Amino acid sequence: MKKRLFTPGPSAVPEEVLLEMAKPIVHHRTREFFDIANEALEGLRYFFQTKGDVAIFSSSGTGAMEAALVNSVSAGDGVLVLSAGKFGERFASIGKAYGCHVQSIEPGWGNPFDLAEVERVLRKDPKIRAVCATLCETSTASSCDIEGIGKIVRQYPETILIVDGISGLGAVPCKTDAWGLDMVVSGSQKALMLPPGLSFLSVSEKAWNAIERSTLPKFYFDLKQYRIARKKNDFPWTMAVSLIRGLKKALDLIQEETLEIMWKRHHIRAEAVRAAAKALGLKVFSKTPSDAVTAILLPEEVKGDLFVSQLRDKFGITFAGGQDSLKGKIVRISHFGWQDEFDTLTAISALEVMLTEHGYPCDPGIGVKVATPILFS
Amino acid sequence: MKKRLFTPGPSAVPEEVLLEMAKPIVHHRTREFFDIANEALEGLRYFFQTKGDVAIFSSSGTGAMEAALVNSVSAGDGVLVLSAGKFGERFASIGKAYGCHVQSIEPGWGNPFDLAEVERVLRKDPKIRAVCATLCETSTASSCDIEGIGKIVRQYPETILIVDGISGLGAVPCKTDAWGLDMVVSGSQKALMLPPGLSFLSVSEKAWNAIERSTLPKFYFDLKQYRIARKKNDFPWTMAVSLIRGLKKALDLIQEETLEIMWKRHHIRAEAVRAAAKALGLKVFSKTPSDAVTAILLPEEVKGDLFVSQLRDKFGITFAGGQDSLKGKIVRISHFGWQDEFDTLTAISALEVMLTEHGYPCDPGIGVKVATPILFS
Q1: A15-257 has CATH 3.40.30.10 classification
Q2: Which regions in chain A score pLDDT beneath 70?
Q3: Which of A61, A143, B139, B304 makes the best surface tag, with the fewest CB within 10 Å?
């Protein structure tokens, strides 16, 4: 059975990237490897839209979220988390695990943040050393006004802005330097079109100053050790050489396409799926939908978990279901990874077929009809 | 140019494992992936020789070394490190980074440990909660009597034994349960014949008790979160699905061969290289050489770094040089990874050719002559 991944991570990887990673192993302390790694780092700077440092870790995205906090704050420091989904909550959990004083702004899953409230909280509590926000909250498929938050946080010289860009970066605009984002976290298995296993963390000058002050314990994720090694054109630990090979290749493809075109294509695909959902009489869950992934509320009579597993088992098409409080209630369709406009139509057709099978009859093609002109105009 | 890796990590990966990892990405929360992962975990239990738990992390081996300590001890706890090389020293650095009271037994690089001293120190200081030892100290290519240390530490009910088996496991005997090893760390890029990117940590019942007491902060490497997820047949974070695919395949090959045959083959290859070195008038560096990797002291007139880089650039053959105080003085030839007995002869021939080029003339074949009967008897 042919398989198609529409999950918001991991995403499908281009065949040429898969084969690049299947090449024989090179030693991680050779010129051959450093040439590949340095080109990949140059590509990452473009991907992050920064002239600053981007660190690469072998870990899931959560590892780099932890790296951001343990390197920049100390026990007892205030951490303000903008939390409206599972991944916002994760920032809060990490901060608490390390003894930070965590405050969360929680408008509820899928709801937008009131930036005036962010400003109020920051003004009231001068001990806040880090603000954590999420570019695309994958659990609710919501976007967030990171540019606006950047404008607020940059006014506080001792407070940094940490952005979880794991599932958003590359899919939606995010300009690390121009927007004043001090640390942006990302992962390999999303718009970068790589397997999971690598995570990334950009570090601004302001963040480096915070790193100097931080006293939280760390070792594997220690950015100071990382910087010392990089100054000798080395890395502190053994790098995942095959994934780095793939990273370089994937970034070559992205630079060839350009981020502007990538952002536009993700936007168009998301618009197409949102229009199709509407045509099918369904609602998009989020009040501020992201262009990286779309969450569609299922009709009440449809059992979401069964819907997702049957789609996968019968047709090889994998959507994601809902997490935690959204379990069984939504399906999430990603717009990133190795997919094109015809794949988007396939996802919409799959939705139509499976909805009908689940007792929510829809005329075949009703979603495709409205999506096609959006995708191909 | 054909390339051959004899470095003590990363090692060469079998072609069929490379191609297994090039298969299309599966989602990490599907039955298909859990089936692969659970078979890999079963294979890891065999590889570690344990009926207990083995955790998989996306990280380098250093990450799992940190995981072992941060999960099992608390700030101020005593940690005894048996340190006679770079990786013993790393355990000490991690313990210090987390505020443990670290004591090291340091016989000097390449020298063996006096087990009576280990016993004396443990008896004198009842606050020691963890003893850290290294199965194969890669920096000096030395073995360590882990079985003997296990017999001592098991007498202390509140002290666990943590073993860095990163470059030793699979190459030399190491019986986690039978020897009473509470936590054994390993990595993907050594005898397991995978690319770097995964690390592993076995956990005994005694170690789980220590984990209950530990108060050090942790999140990504938190074994309690890991255990909660595993109870639901899940993993806490997104797993590196392509590497896990390769892991299952590599462990299939290892189980087919059996560990006993693997250990014997590594021993024979190491014996062959040691005999060849002797025939060439050279000395093995370590007083207790490991069968995982051999470190050969170069003649004084040979510049070690140039030796290694020329071998790589001219012939595509990669040995490792020395690290830190051994920089330029030794070459290290690994016996693990995707190599057979003819590869061992190739390594010996390469040594002969390059020694002659560096002004240390040796009759061609003098090493091969003594190694061949050892390899093929």
Answers
A1: no
A2: none
A3: B304
